[in-house]
């Protein structure tokens, strides 16, 4: 069954990932265009997250958004900025994913 509220959360998370990558590219806002882009993307992500709350519990929406953002930002940092996690970091991400699955089924 199609769920527009889930689509809002996924889109919000994708925007959050791009915002985080743009923030890294801004180099501490020294490259202000990337910094401004990151702020605008976060604003839009929060707007979409707000829309998702019309049909989804806050705890579920926020956890989905955050976990997708964590995984996507980690993968984006790996591919675009050569940022590597130690194995324990990947264990932590796996635990976050398990937490989302547990919360979604509650």
UniProtKB/TrEMBL annotation:
GO biological process: glycine betaine transport; spermidine transmembrane transport
Bilayer disposition of the protein: Multi-pass membrane protein
Compartment(s) of residence: Cell inner membrane; Cell membrane
Alphabetical UniProt keywords: Cell inner membrane, Cell membrane, Membrane, Transmembrane, Transmembrane helix
Ranges that cross the membrane: 6-23, 35-53, 59-81, 88-105
Highest rank taxon of the organism: Bacteria
Primary localization class, coarse: membrane
Entries under InterPro entries matching the protein: EmrE-like, Small_drug/metabolite_transptr, Small_multidrug_res
A Pfam entry, by short name: Multi_Drug_Res
GO cellular component: plasma membrane
UniProt-recorded Gene Ontology molecular function terms: amino-acid betaine transmembrane transporter activity; antiporter activity; choline transmembrane transporter activity
Self-association state and partner proteins as the record states: Forms a complex with MdtJ.
PANTHER family recorded: SMR FAMILY PROTON-DEPENDENT DRUG EFFLUX TRANSPORTER SUGE (PTHR30561), SPERMIDINE EXPORT PROTEIN MDTI (PTHR30561:SF6)
Protein family: Belongs to the drug/metabolite transporter (DMT) superfamily. Small multidrug resistance (SMR) (TC 2.A.7.1) family.
Record protein name field: Spermidine export protein MdtI
């Amino acid at each position: 069954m199609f769920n527009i509220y889930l689509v809002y959360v996924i889109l919000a998370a994708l925007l959050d990932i791009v915002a985080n990558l743009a923030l890294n590219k801004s180099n501490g806002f020294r490259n202000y265009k990337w910094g401004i882009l990151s702020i605008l993307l976060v604003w839009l992500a929060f707007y979409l997250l707000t829309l998702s709350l019309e049909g989804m519990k806050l705890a579920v929406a926020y956890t989905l958004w955050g976990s997708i953002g964590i995984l996507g930002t980690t993968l984006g940092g790996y591919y675009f900025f050569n940022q590597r996690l130690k194995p324990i970091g990947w264990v932590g991400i796996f635990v976050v994913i398990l937490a989302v699955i547990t919360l979604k089924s509650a």
